[in-house]
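Human: I would love a firmer grasp of how sequence relates to backbone shape in proteins. Could you go through the record with me and say what the backbone is doing? Here is the record:
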Amino acid sequence: MNKRARNRLIGISVIIVLALIALFATLSANNSSYNMTVAEAAKAENVGKRVKVSGTVVNGSWDKRTNPMRFEIRDEDDADGTGAVITVVYAGATVPSTFGDGVTAIVTGEMEEDGTIRSTEMITKCPSKYESSTDAYTVAQLKERSDTMVGVPVKVAGLVKDGKVNPSGSAVRFVLVDAQGGPVELNIAYEGALQDEVATSDTKVVVTGEMNNNGAFDAVSVAIEDN
């Protein structure tokens, strides 16, 4: 092998080595952002690092009107509410429509010195919940009785109109219509977590709550209809 060919081979080898180093560095950075628990992420050693944390949104800890939005998460298995809590400062472009009290939020961002996570990446998940519609009103039936049903705990079954779900904090989270269709609609106010299936136009849901004085329905639970 002549000198020119040898130098060319060395040059190519150097390029390959540098490319591999860059690849391993990228993989290492991604691995350093593995899915931590809240207790793990809250450790002082994570300050200044990019972390990925999964936790349950603490009820009433958020206000979508703040900019950026702030909320708290705790570990999903922290049933007593005595474990570590982390404040998330979320400045992402949009808040997932399924976000709400009790939803599992998976956030990625940098851990700051004050123990908060500044994040622009968030996904949410909520276990599917099923409920029978046997003793539930249809939308039309409930609207016919709305004047006498204010403040009375009931269940109503139907479809989410057009499969559209608004973010938590909206005056109307979604609009419910009868499963058979029809012009009668019921505005649902709800700040809890929603399953992804609820935003599907052909998914039947059962909503528990009560009518308010404005003709809307204040929900405390939303479940998929158990057929």
